[in-house]
Write a structure and sequence with these properties.
The complex is a heterodimer of chains A (453) and B (322).
Chain A lengths: L2 H28 L6 E8 L4 H17 L3 E8 L3 H10 L5 E5 H9 L7 H4 L10 H4 L12 E13 H6 L11 H15 L2 E4 L6 H12 L5 E2 L2 E2 L4 H16 L11 H9 L3 E7 L3 H6 L8 E5 L10 E10 L5 H20 L1 H13 L14 H10 L8 H8 L7 E2 L6 H17 L5 H19 L1
Helix pairs in contact in A: 2-14, 9-10, 9-17, 13-14, 17-18
Chain B lengths: L12 H9 L5 H39 L2 E2 L7 E2 L3 H8 L1 H21 L1 H12 L4 H13 L2 H11 L7 H8 L14 H26 L3 H9 L4 H12 L1 H16 L3 H7 L10 H10 L7 H25 L1 H4 L1
Antiparallel strand pairs in B: 1-2
Helix pairs in contact in B: 3-15, 4-9, 4-12, 5-9, 6-9, 7-13, 14-15
The chains are: A alpha/beta (453), B mainly alpha (322).
Chain lengths: 453, 322
């Protein structure tokens, strides 16, 4: 019988609810009346102690500079499911991060605080790359959420597995056909997955869209879903070939973002596609051996529409924050996320703390301002850079020349979820019919977009 | 008992006396009744508050929410039956219904008889019964998430996965337990049965201990063998417990969530998408604010169906359980 576990889960849920309520009541009554503005900010979940120490050092610096603000920290990692629950439950910290994709939607629905009165006073307000600032602006151009980082998708690869397969780790694949060939070589020589893709929690759709973009396709045209395209067919056909003919995708075929990072860092994956700034997560949360790491650009098809899918992170403020807390929150975002991009002393202080505590400095990003500002910031922190920049050169030397595409804007996560199913079907069903899958996906994606309109 | 005597069987005239003395109209009786009512209320109050706050109020809120469009941040809008229509129009609903039904069927085939057989075998053991009971119950005390993570290792699709290694010894090719469309649901049921059977074994063992040994002795004198004793004494004596565990099993499996959520997230390609997982997806997979109205609507429909099924079941089996 399978009910005792359900009963136990219900009991646990009830006790948890009681506990959470008690904690919530305690939290309400415990906030000291010390005349300070109290804000809660996020720290990545699962960090090594050195990274936590580095963060705490930055908090102390902020509190010293702002004696009227008290900062509490809360572990946080953005995932669609947990973020939605926290948003609905009102348990988000005062300052939190969200992907570019969600900025406009949350602003339209009034689900984040309107901090535009405070962001308008930031000295670099007008210096943002307009395309990037748009992710955090309302239709009138008011900045509700601050872009703190941008990335372009890249090809992460394991240099050690490349060498074991007789491949040159300094000459990563430059076409999708070469990726397929390298994947088979790695798989045959090492028994590990030559190439893996994410499949779960909407990441399957995210990566499939990335590949389609690199081949010159799009998944939407205004309010119309464009799932069934030659580029989509090409991407799926290659995936099918690698999975079933080449057998180069290993034994684990279902991954979310955290899972694929974990397996890549532990040497079980030869190549995978993800954001170019992933090194920080791979190193600090998954114990990556820096010697293993390689990063290159995604191959772009000879098509005028081909480009790399970009994305980024916005810092936003809880809709429950009072005006004083909103102002303090913007001060924190300015101090923790932005000053290191615009102010030499802040950039050096940040890099110094990270370097002293063994955290990565110099992992590649795309500029949220202009390229010149980014290059200048890189020179400020050059002496503290401790990531294997040579191994990332295939990416950093070329990514700025690649056309950067934004993520789809209509029902983005729902369409990604629809494409998750397509990717999973290709990888787990040897007889998967691409025609049928795309017909269903096209209808489902259009329905999702219509519902969101 | 005569037709004019409406006392329950076993209630004597002396026991019935105080009821007569408590007729309305006598001040002492009214006071006693009021005091008793107050005491009852005082003792009930904590339970009423806890149930009210954590069960009844959320249930009422969910019913209201099923007729609203809300993101729980901005003001809700009443939309009538639109959420229900949306759920019925979702092709994934029927996928989830089929998957949930399949899980329930497999769990019924494997998860229902196994504890009964185990309990009967254990009840026959004279020595070390306590040890066997403890071993059977052990998986129940393993935290469910830990158990699933443990079984994920067992189910590793590679040749060096635990189960695949065993299959390799027998010359059988590795199975992609959680990634093969045909193998994934039985894999989930296997773990779920392992994890939950112990609790039911204990219930059956307790019921078996209550069976009058003289029934077996009489049957042996009449020449009954093991199977006839099982069929004519054990199972009939467990009838009431079996009927209860059956309906609890159906309700439990109709609400299966943990295994598909943690093992496969509904995959591959929605092969393990269950009703509760679909409700979860409605509510939580859109980071711009979940469709809580649709989630509440499907929750309400599931609750109504299960309640109707339970009532029908107890009505149909009323004569068996008496």
């Amino acid at each position: 019988m399978l009910t005792s576990r359900a009963a136990a889960a219900r009991t646990a849920a009830a006790l948890t609810a009681l506990g959470v309520s008690a904690l919530g009541l305690a939290a309400c009554s415990d906030e000291p009346d010390d005349g300070k503005t109290h804000i809660t900010v996020t720290i990545d979940a699962g960090l090594e102690q050195e990274a936590i120490d580095a963060f705490d050092a930055r908090v102390e610096q902020f509190e010293d500079a702002n004696p009227d603000i008290d900062v509490e920290t809360q572990e946080y990692t953005w995932t669609a499911g947990t973020f939605t629950a926290q948003l609905a439950g009102g348990t988000l910290p005062d300052v939190f991060t969200i992907p570019f994709t969600d900025g406009r939607g949350l602003i339209e629905r009034g689900q984040i605080a309107d901090i535009s009165a405070y962001t308008a006073d930031l000295p670099y307000r007008d210096a943002f790359n307009p395309n990037i600032a748009a992710a955090g602006e309302d239709p009138d151009g008011n900045l509700w959420a601050i872009p703190i980082a941008a990335y372009g998708q890249g090809l992460h690869y394991n240099r050690t597995l490349f060498e074991a397969a007789g491949l040159d780790p300094d000459a990563p694949p430059t076409t999708w056909a070469e990726i397929q060939t390298a994947a088979k070589a790695i798989s045959d020589a090492t028994g590990e997955a030559g190439y893996s893709v994410m499949t779960n929690d909407n990441t399957g759709g995210w990566i499939l869209t990335t590949v389609v973009n690199a081949l010159g396709g799009r998944t939407e045209d205004g309010d119309t879903a464009t799932i069934d395209t030659p580029q989509m067919r090409e991407a799926l056909t290659q995936l099918q070939t690698m999975r079933w003919d080449d057998d180069s995708m290993g034994d684990t075929l279902q991954y979310d973002w955290a899972g694929i990072n974990q397996d890549f860092a532990s040497g079980r994956i030869g190549m995978y596609v993800s954001g170019g700034g992933n090194y920080g997560n791979l190193f600090t949360q998954n114990g990556l051996d820096p010697d293993d790491y390689g990063l290159s650009i995604l191959p772009l098809a000879a098509d005028a529409n081909a480009g790399i899918l970009g994305g980024g992170t916005l810092a936003a403020v809880s809709p429950d924050a009072e005006p004083a807390e909103q102002e303090a929150a913007v001060a924190w975002i300015d101090f923790y996320f932005m000053e290191k991009l615009t102010d030499q002393a802040a950039a050096v202080a940040d890099a110094e703390v990270k370097a002293e505590t063994g955290q990565p400095v110099g992992a590649p990003e795309l500029p949220v301002f202009d390229k010149a500002t980014y290059d200048e910031q890189q020179t400020w922190i050059a002496e503290y850079v401790n990531v294997p920049v040579e191994q990332m050169a295939p990416y950093t030397s070329q990514v700025f020349d690649q056309p950067l595409l934004t993520e789809p804007v209509s029902a983005t996560q729902e369409v990604y979820a629809v494409l998750d199913t397509v990717v999973q079907s290709i990888l787990t069903d040897e007889n998967a019919d691409i025609d049928a899958l795309l017909e269903t996906a096209q209808a489902d994606a259009q329905a999702a977009m219509d519902a969101a309109a | 008992m005569t037709t004019t005597d409406t006392r329950p069987a076993g209630v004597t005239g002396d026991q019935a006396g105080p009821r007569k003395a408590a007729r309305p109209g006598r001040p002492g009786a009214r006071l006693a009744r009021a005091t008793t009512g107050l005491h009852t209320l005082v003792f009930l109050a904590p339970m009423l508050v806890v149930f009210g706050v954590f069960s009844w109020y959320p249930i009422a809120r969910a019913v209201v929410m099923s007729f609203q469009r809300t993101n729980l941040v901005t003001d809700p809008v009443f939309v009538g039956f639109a959420n229900f229509q949306q759920v019925f129009a979702d092709p994934l609903l029927w996928t989830a219904v089929q998957n949930t039904g399949y899980f329930a069927l497999l769990a019924l085939l494997f998860g229902y008889p196994i504890p009964l057989v185990a309990a009967i075998l254990m009840s026959e053991v004279r020595r070390l019964r306590g040890l066997f009971s403890a071993l059977a119950y052990l998986p129940v005390v393993v935290p469910p998430v830990v158990a699933v993570l443990l079984w994920k290792l067992f189910y590793d699709a590679g040749e060096d996965g635990v189960f695949n290694t065993v299959l390799g010894w027998l010359g059988i090719a590795p199975i992609a337990w959680l990634q093969d469309a045909n193998a994934v649901m039985p894999s989930l049921v296997l773990e779920a049965t392992w994890a939950a059977a112990g609790g039911t074994v204990i219930i059956y063992l307790a019921a078996l201990i209550g069976v009058d040994p003289s029934l077996y002795e009489a049957a042996e004198i009449d020449g009954a063998g093991v199977w006839r004793k099982l069929w004519h004494i054990t199972l009939p004596q467990l009838r009431g417990v079996l009927l209860i565990t059956f309906i609890l099993q159906i309700i439990g499996t109709a609400q299966v969530f943990l295994e598909p959520f943690l093992f496969t997230d509904g995959g591959p390609a929605n092969r393990t998408l269950t009703l509760l997982l679909l409700i979860y997806r409605y509510a939580f997979t859109n980071s711009l604010g979940g469709d809580y109205g649709a989630a509440a609507a499907l929750s309400l429909m599931l609750a109504v169906v299960l309640a109707a099924f339970s009532m029908l079941y107890f009505r149909l089996t009323r004569s068996w359980s008496s």
